[in-house]
Structure formats: structure tokens, C-alpha cells
UniProtKB/TrEMBL annotation:
Catalytic activity: [protein]-peptidylproline (omega=180) = [protein]-peptidylproline (omega=0)
Protein's name according to its UniProt entry: Peptidyl-prolyl cis-trans isomerase
EC number(s) given by UniProt: 5.2.1.8
UniProt cross-references to PROSITE patterns, sorted A to Z: CSA_PPIASE_1, CSA_PPIASE_2
Function: PPIases accelerate the folding of proteins. It catalyzes the cis-trans isomerization of proline imidic peptide bonds in oligopeptides.
Family: Belongs to the cyclophilin-type PPIase family.
Residues in the signal sequence: 1-22
GO MF: peptidyl-prolyl cis-trans isomerase activity
Membrane-spanning residues: none
Residue intervals of the PPIase cyclophilin-type domain: 34-178
Entry keywords, A to Z: Isomerase, Rotamase, Signal
Family annotation (Pfam families): Pro_isomerase
Organism name: Rhodocista pekingensis
Amino acid sequence: MPRLIALVLLLAGLVLSAPAAARDLENTLYLDLPDGRVVIEMRPDLAPRHVARIKELARQGFYDGVPFHRVIEGFMAQTGDPTGTGEGGSGRTLPLEASEAKHERGVVSMARGRSPNSADSQFFIMYARRPGLDRLYTVWGRVVEGMEHVDALKKGEPATDGRVEAPDRIVRLRVAADVETGRTGTVR
């Protein structure tokens, strides 16, 4: 009987650690924030063009040092604009990739302008469920570890002069496969 219990405990330990080991590293992002690492599972099945573009920008180092220019408690944290005003981007827009995915806590989705086909480099991480966003914004990922670090971001929005008082910034955003294999990606 002790051997059976030991075997069950060993198998339980393997099952509990399996999701991290089984993670698709090419479709996983490491978002390093001031308080720690956030792991984002990307969803190319929902938004293949957006996932490809996010990975391309991450590999260029585009997001490194970019501020969270809009962080609204109970709603979301938005980043991806190097100017910090909410008006900037990478200069290349993508068409909407609508899906049935729900905008709920931990979901990562693209920000956009008035046009559904105006998403660029800005994205947001949801703090809570917002059904009004469903099918109107492209969901491309989900936080699977480290949501407490997103919760810890300084709250605020751009002031009339376009600046947030000392916003938190992305330290680094990398494709997990590059980090785990030692590849550094393309330098811009």
C-alpha cells in the first residue's frame, strides 16, 4: 500500500507540472514587468495574423520599455504605444479577427481605433469580464501565469497633454521559444 500511495503522489506531481512543460513555447510570450514575469499563451487558432505580428514585434524588441499608458482598475491595462499617448503604434494595421472568445479576466486583446480594421501594436489585458467587447476586438491570448503582476500596475490614463504620471513600463517582451533556446531575436 505505501508503494501505491507513493506512485499516486508521483503521478499527481507529474500531472500538476505537465501544463508548463507541455506549453507551446513558440506561441508563448514572457512579458517581464517591474513586479515580475507574466506568461501569455497566444492563440493562433483565433487570430493567426495578430499572433504572427505580435511575435514579429516582440522579436524586434519593439515593446521593450513601452509604457502602460491606460490602466483602469476593474477593466484593463493597455500598452503597445511607444509614444505613451495612446495614439502611436508600429505603423502597420491589421484587420479584425473576430472570434467567440470572451473578454474576461486575463484575456489579451488588440486595441484599435474607430475602425474594426485599425489594430496595430497596442494591446490590453483584461482585469474583469466585459461582454460589450466580445467580437468587436481581436482576442489573441490569455495570461496563464503572473496575473498578480498585471494587477500591480500603476493605475491611470493619459492626461490632456497625453502623458500618464510615471506609468509602469514593459521591461521586456519575448517569445518563450527564443528565451528557452537562447535566441535573441532580431534587433531593430
